[in-house]
Write a structure and sequence with these properties.
The protein is α+β, with helices and mostly antiparallel strands and about 60 residues long. It contains 1 helix and 2 strands, in the order H-E-E. It has a domain of about 40 residues. The radius of gyration is 15 Å and the shape is extended.
């Protein structure tokens, strides 16, 4: 996952406590009346290096 440099607090939070979760629940534009919701939780790490593009982040 990535985040904008403007949201550096997200990276700081992951470095402090690696427990994370993501909720996918916005059916806007899907045309589905009862779109499913998906919650994913786990443990994450966040390196100290700042990358300004996807090159080198393949792994």
């Amino acid at each position: 996952m990535t985040t904008s440099l403007a949201y550096a607090q997200k990276a700081l939070n992951v470095r402090r406590d690696g427990r994370v979760g993501m909720l996918f629940s916005d059916p806007t534009g899907s045309g589905a009346a009862d779109a499913p919701q998906v919650f994913v939780s786990g443990t994450a790490t966040c390196p100290d290096e700042i990358m300004t593009g996807p090159a080198g982040a393949e792994k």
